[in-house]
Write a structure and sequence with these properties.
With 434 residues, the protein is an alpha/beta fold. The chain has helices at 3-30, 32-40, 60-69, 104-121, 142-151, 163-173, 182-195, 218-228, 350-360, 391-406; strands at residues 86-89, 99-102, 128-131, 154-157, 177-180, 206-209, 231-234, 236-238, 242-247, 254-256, 261-266, 290-296, 307-313, 315-316, 328-329, 335-336, 341-343, 346-348, 363-373, 376-385, 412-414, 430-433. The strands form six sheets. A five-stranded parallel sheet has the order 4-3-5-6-7, sandwiched between helices. A five-stranded antiparallel sheet has the order 8-9-10-15-14, with helices on one face. A four-stranded antiparallel sheet has the order 11-12-13-16. Helix 1 packs across helix 2 (32-40), helix 4 packs across helix 5 (142-151) and helix 7 runs parallel beside helix 8. The mean pLDDT is 91. The structure holds zinc ion. Residues 248, 250, 253, 255, 320, 322, 324, 328 line the site of zinc ion.
């Protein structure tokens, strides 16, 4: 690490310590959820940043149990209820949705985090930003949308429209930035081809994705970049955490917004801390994924402190070629821990299945069924080819790729065009049977 970088890191740490200390004081005094947790861990007075590693983790299950027991809002509230002005819900892909309340200040903090995402992606006030998003209770692109307006962009809400209507609106109104999940962006490409709309020759210059691993999967990213004729950016965030991942334009690197978040990296099984991988070290291996644990510093009304995100990634020490002084994820968020399954002793993440399917090419949509027979799981694929794709060669391409990369024999069944469900928000392509 150069002296200059070391000094920047020192200043960053001092700012984090100051903000953490001020937050901990308010939380310790007024937030029943954390006060009880911390007291049980022996903290009678507010912890400082130096105490962080001794504080208990916070989990989603724990927050959900608290909301069940103290319905509807739970006890992770630092202020009286009348101070809160918004409520959103997690998408509930894993269990009961969580409700999350924001004050005007914490909402603005979330928007400010998004401004950093836009800065990383090179979005400016000259852009026209289209949100292909349903504007429901899921927080998703609500914050991205409002932040784009604050940045001075022309914002274009695309809720309650068909994919065709969205494509025509983007074309007619000259959208330059698309906000969507990666899954939905692929679906837009499929529809555009069918409708004869030339997206690659259109005005879209950037696409920004969130909601699921995908834009960080190189084969998906390439497909989106070619289809839209655009630069493709991933961002990472969660309803209960905020927008914490900022692209820098170097590969799939995703920086932690360390001005607003404290990151820890742990072994998923044991919870033991891991030091970030030194940036000078060569290629990170496939088996060195760890779980990200985040503490946010600006959402004092409903904070997460040492929150186990379930996001699996490779954390690298500061020193990205982009010159940013923050630590970063090599390849973005690679997978979600909750989604992992084991087939014949091989740990398989749905994002790895997705990567192989996109690499094979020619797939419009797919569905995977994982059958757990006794302790031996089997995985089967249903695949809907793109129009005009040769289904026999597609089947053998896919089977070869799964055999070669994951040492798995995966039966592939080819289905009719339009027979598999399409998704706008979080895709739900995996079925688990006992
Ligand atoms: Zn970077």
């Amino acid at each position: 690490m150069t002296d200059r970088l070391a000094r920047r890191r020192q200043r960053l740490r001092a700012r984090q310590a100051d903000r953490f200390g001020r937050m901990a004081e308010q939380v310790h005094r007024h937030n029943p959820f954390y006060r009880a947790k911390w007291r049980a861990a022996g903290f009678e007075s507010p912890p400082t940043l130096d105490d962080l590693a001794d504080l208990p983790f916070t989990t989603k299950e724990e927050l959900a149990r608290d909301q069940d027991a103290n319905a509807p809002w739970g006890t992770n509230l630092t202020f009286p209820l009348e101070r809160y002005v918004r409520v959103h819900r997690t998408s509930g892909t894993t269990g009961t949705p969580l409700r999350w309340l924001d004050t005007p200040a914490s909402w603005q903090w979330f928007l400010d985090c998004w401004l950093a995402v836009y800065e990383g992606a090179g979005v400016t006030s000259a852009d026209r930003v289209f949100a292909a998003f349903g504007f429901g209770p899921f927080i998703g692109f609500w914050t991205a949308f409002e932040a784009a307006q604050q940045l001075g962009c022309l914002v274009q809400p695309g809720g309650h429209l068909s994919t065709e209507q969205r494509l025509r609106m983007m074309r007619d109104d000259g959208s330059t930035v698309l906000l969507s999940t990666p899954t939905y962006a692929l679906r837009m490409l499929e529809s555009a081809r069918r409708l004869g709309i030339d997206l690659a020759g259109g005005a879209v210059e950037r696409t920004i994705h969130a909601g699921e691993p995908g834009a960080g999967v190189p084969a998906v990213k390439q497909q989106l970049a070619a289809g839209f004729g655009a630069r493709v950016f991933d961002h990472a965030g969660a309803t209960e955490v905020g927008a914490w991942g900022v692209p820098c334009g170097i590969g799939e690197n995703l920086h932690i917004l360390e001005n607003e978040f404290i990151v820890e990296w742990i072994d998923r099984e044991t919870g033991a801390p891991r030091p970030p991988i030194e940036t000078a070290e060569a290629e990170a291996g496939a088996d060195d994924l760890g779980e990200l644990v985040l503490t946010n510093l600006g959402r004092i009304g409903s904070p997460v402190i040492r929150y186990r995100t379930g996001d699996m990634a490779r954390l690298r020490a500061a020193g990205c070629p982009s010159g940013r002084p923050t630590v970063y994820l090599d390849g973005g968020v690679v997978a979600r821990a909750d989604d992992m399954f084991i087939v014949r002793g091989v740990n398989v993440y749905p994002s790895a299945v997705e990567a192989l399917i996109r690499e094979a090419g020619g797939v419009a949509e797919y569905r995977a069924t994982v059958r757990r027979r006794s302790r031996m799981a089997e995985v089967e694929l249903q695949v809907e080819p793109e129009p005009g794709a040769d289904s026999r060669s597609l089947r053998s391409r896919l089977q070869d790729l799964f055999e070669e990369r994951l040492s798995l024999r995966v039966p592939v069944r080819i289905t009719d065009a339009g027979s598999l469900p399409r998704y706008e928000l979080k895709a739900n392509r995996f079925t688990f049977l006992d």
